[in-house]
Amino acid sequence: MREKRKKEHIEYALSTGQSREHGFHDVTFVHQSLPGTSLYTIDLTTKIGELDLSLPIFINAMTGGGGRRTEKINSQLAEAARECNLAIGVGSQMAAIKDPFQERTYKVMRDKNPNGVIFANLGSEATVEEAKKAIEMIEANALQIHVNAVQELVMPEGDRDFCDALLNIEKIAKHIEIPLIVKEVGYGMSKETAKKLLDAGVNIVDIGGFGGTNFSLIENKRRDRMLTFMNEWGIQTASSIAEVTQTSPFIDVIASGGIQTGLEVAKSIALGASACGMAGFFLNILLNEGLESLIKEIEYILNELKMIMTALGRKDIQSLQKAPIVISGNTHHWLTERGIK
Ligand code: FNR
C-alpha cells in the first residue's frame, strides 16, 4: 500500500505541476543604482539554527521506500546535491522503520554523498525512538518532522487524529542531538503555529507554503469523491514567510513551496528566510530532462541569485535579509489583515 502511494505521489506531483500562486509577484525589490558590490565576492553561506550551509538552497524531502525506482531517484538527487554542494532531505523514513528491507532506498543518499548535509524525515506521529533510528539510518545532520494534517485528511487512507502531534514534537525536540526542523508540505505555516512550535522547543521551521506542489490535488486524484475545496487550502509562501519571520525572531525560517528561480530565492530571503527548499521543480527536471540538466539548473539559480544580490548591493545572506522591498496586492492585504508589518 505504502509503495503504491509513493509511486502515485511522484506521478501525480509531476502531472499536477505547480500553480505558481505563491505570492512572490507581490514582492518587488527597490532598485539601487550604486550597489557598491562585486559579483566575484558575493558570499552565499548561511546558517539555520546550529547548522552551517555553504549555499542557501537545498533539495527538499521527497522519496524513499518505494523500491528500485525510488532508489534510483534518490541516488541521482544525492549526486546532484554532491556536485552542487547542496544539502538534501530524504523522504519520510517511516517505510524503512516499519520494514528494514526498504532502508537501502534512503541509505543510497549517504553512500552517494558521504560528506554532504543530509536531513532525515518522519511525520509528527513519530516516537523519540523512531526519530533516533531515522537519524542513525542515514547519519543525518538534521531531522525534519513534517506536519501535513490537510494532506492526511484528503488522503483516503490518511490519519484523522492529530491530538498528539505537538506533544510528540516537543519530546523529539528534547531528546535528539542534532537540529530539528518542523516542516509543512505546501499549506504554509501561520504565526500561531510558529508560536506553538517555539514553545515546544523548536527553533527552525520550513513554512512549506501554498503555490507549489499541491498535495490536495495529488490526494484528490487518489479519491473516489474529491474534496475539491481543499485544493485552494493554505497560506501562500510569501505571506507565510512574513507571518513567521515578522512575529517569531527566535525561529530560523526555511522558505519552500513553489520556489523555482533565483529571484524567488532572493525574495524569500528578503522576507526574512535563511534558506530555501525546492522539491517538485527539481524532481520534474530530473525525471523529464535528466541529472545533467538538474545540475545545470541549480548552477543557473545560484548564479541568478548572485546577480540579484550584486544589483541590490547585498554582499551576503544576512544583508539580503534586510534588502528594501515593497509588498503589494493580495500579499499586502493578507499581512495587513493579520496585523503583520
Ligand atoms: C514531497 N514532500 C514530502 N515532504 C516530507 O516532509 N516528507 C515526504 O516524504 C515528502 N514526500 C514528497 C514526495 C513528492 C513526490 C513531492 C513532490 C514532495 C513535500 C516537499 O518536501 C515540499 O514540502 C513540497 O513539495 C512543497 O515544495 P515544492 O515541491 O513546491 O518545492
3D architecture notes:
- The protein has helices spanning 2-16, 68-84, 94-98, 104-112, 128-138, 149-154, 165-175, 191-199, 215-220, 237-245, 262-270, 280-289, 291-312, 317-320, 329-337; strands at 27-29, 46-48, 51-53, 57-59, 87-89, 118-123, 142-146, 180-183, 204-206, 252-256, 275-278, 325-327.
- With 341 residues, it is α/β, with parallel strands linked by helices.
- The strands form three sheets. It has an eight-stranded parallel β-barrel with strand order 4-5-6-7-8-9-10-11, surrounded by six helices. Strands 1-12 form a two-stranded antiparallel sheet. Strands 2-3 form a two-stranded antiparallel ribbon.
- Helix 2 (68-84) packs parallel to helix 4 and helix 12 (280-289) packs across helix 13.
- The chain is globular, with a radius of gyration of 19 Å.
- 50% of the residues are buried.
- The model has no long low-confidence stretch (mean pLDDT 97).
- The structure holds ligand FNR.
- Residues 9-10, 13, 18, 60-63, 91-92, 121, 144, 146, 183, 185-186, 208, 212-213, 256-259, 278-281, 283 line the site of ligand FNR.
